Amino acid sequence: MRVSELVARTGVPLATVKYYLREGLLMPGEATSATQAKYGEEHVQRLGLVKALAGAGLPIPRIREILRLVDHPDGSLFEVLGQAIAQLPPYLDTPAADDAADEFPRARAVLDRLGQVYDPGYVAVGQLERALAALEEAGIPMTDERLDAYGRHVRGIAEIDIGLMPTASAEDAIRYAVLGTAVYEPVIAAMRRLAHQDVAQKRLRNPEEQDQQ
Amino acid sequence: MRVSELVARTGVPLATVKYYLREGLLMPGEATSATQAKYGEEHVQRLGLVKALAGAGLPIPRIREILRLVDHPDGSLFEVLGQAIAQLPPYLDTPAADDAADEFPRARAVLDRLGQVYDPGYVAVGQLERALAALEEAGIPMTDERLDAYGRHVRGIAEIDIGLMPTASAEDAIRYAVLGTAVYEPVIAAMRRLAHQDVAQKRLRNPEEQDQQ
DNA sequence: CACATTGGATAGTTTCAGTATCCAGTCGAG
DNA sequence: CTCGACTGGATACTGAAACTATCCAATGTG
Questions:
Q1: pLDDT over 90 (residue B149)
Q2: Residue A96: its pLDDT value, please?
Q3: Which residues of chain B lie closer than 8 angstroms to A155, CB-CB?
């Protein structure tokens, strides 16, 4: 298909398609002449993915990096996933901690409490630390009770994620992990917001069953 | 305390404090003269909250609206919470659906499947729809299996959230609900990312216990 | 009294994410 | 063949957002 059709199918304006092409977010079509190129389904899908990531508020350079990792994963699943997660908010100013000493005290306390295995150099540790610090600074409490419950359920979600991960090829696994992390998060957030309403409504109706799971 | 101390305690640059003051994100201090004002703990905390929200990528007008709702909630818990959630991404272009007819097909299918009570006019329904549509456009699958599991665990998280909600005053409840939705989300996201690593590691070690919870 | 600090106003900067314009080569209907 | 529409490619422009910097006159302080 030509550009005009790509534009029609995705709803992305031509100027923006050209912009993404320039920025390297969309691979160029197969040139058939100096002023013509052929685009395929992969371009439609890629544009959808870029839209999803951009819609989540990711800056272009971060999207480019994620796409690069998906297209050319260089390293183990963990390495690539770590690099990809570093492109997701919350962004850390300090990219790496030299020694794992007293870095991330809050996050480490939480993870130790939950008995979780973790690599202290993993980006998400810093991200958790930052989220917890933000909580603290804003004067919002994080009790052990809440923490344990979150830990339990989040782990359940992670089990599903890992359980459904394709194991055939490493590339598939990486692609799945990188995109799954970024793209399922808004779904989970929206579901939580809706569950709040559901739980609150049902409790109002049957206030006696106020057991906290 | 004076501005300089507020700056020192929060780490927010003076120019930025003034900017937040201008934008109405920070309440003015108690003026003691034409060139002096007194700030208190509430200012420190507010600045922390603004930092947390801004750090999550929320635009200033949205933060202002959230703060307004927290400070002067006008309406029921559900109404206020709905308004607050509308300030959180993913942002919807179409603010309201006139009739609840075929609006949000994906989200409704999911919620019906989970047997959840929901108000079709609730913002989060549209947000879920959008997140699911983004998934689809990007060619990423959302199976029923994953959905059911997510639903179960997200519900568990919501039970905790609601269970720990203060019930003494309506204002407290609103404040808790609004901030809890916005501020705990990054924590949950970070925990999920870390749980992925933990689950994957442990599975590699004991591949036999691959039960998906 | 001198000097740093402050509130308040205004202007400037940077980054980001597109849009718009131009151009020259090419395709395709008549 | 021809003429107008469509393309790829390059460059310039725009508008919003979030700070950041500068100035000023009033004030508090040692």
A1: yes
A2: 54
A3: 195, 198-199
Distance, in Å, from the CA atom of A133 to the CA atom of A126, rounded to the nearest integer, reads: 10
Those residues whose C-beta lies under 8 Å from the C-beta of residue A156, and which sit 6 or more positions away, are B149, B152, B153, B156, B213
A45 CA to C1 C1', in Å?
A: 74
Question: How far, in Å, is the CA of B33 from the C1' of nucleotide C6?
Answer: 10
Residue of B nearest to A201 (CA): B117
Look up residue B67 and give its two tokens.
């703060």
Can you tell me which residue has its alpha carbon closest to the C1' of nucleotide D20? B15
Least confident of A111-115, B65-69, B105-109, B167-171: B167-171
Q: Which residues of B touch A154 (CB under 8 A)?
A: 153, 157, 188, 191-192, 195
Alpha-carbon distances, residue A154 vs A142, A160, B156, B211 (angstroms): 16, 10, 10, 16
Per-residue pLDDT, A213: 41
Nearest amino-acid residue to D17, taking CA and C1': B59
Is there contact between B164 and strand D, defined as CB under 7 Å from any strand atom? Answer: no
Percent pLDDT > 90 in chain B is: 59
Question: pLDDT, tens digit, for every residue of A161-179?
Answer: 999 988 888 778 888 888 8
List the single residue in B90, B186, B195 with the smallest CB-CB distance to A90: B186
pLDDT in tens, B117-131: 998 889 999 999 999
CA closest to A128 among chain B residues: B190
Can you tell me the distance from the alpha carbon of A80 to that of A59, in angstroms, rounded to the nearest whole number?
A: 19
Query: Which of A56, A128, A180 shows the shortest C-beta gap to B187?
Result: A128
The residue to which tokens 């659906």 are assigned: B97
Please report, for residues A68, A82, A163, A208, the alpha-carbon distance to residue A130 in angstroms, rounded to integers and kept in the order given: 26, 16, 28, 38
What is the rounded CA–CA span in Å between residue B202 and residue A122? 16
User: Hey, what are A201's tokens?
Assistant: 């409504």
Query: Which residue has better confidence, B97 or B61?
Result: B61
Greatest CA span in chain A, whole angstroms?
73
| Closest chain B residue by Cα to residue A204 | B162
How many Å from the N-terminal Cα to the C-terminal Cα in chain B?
53
- At A17, list the tokens: 């398609």
Whether residues B117 and A198 touch (CB distance < 8 A) is answered with yes
Cβ-in-10-Å burial (0-12, 13-18, 19+) of A210 comes to exposed
Question: Chain A partners of B85 at a C-beta cutoff of 8 Å?
Answer: 193
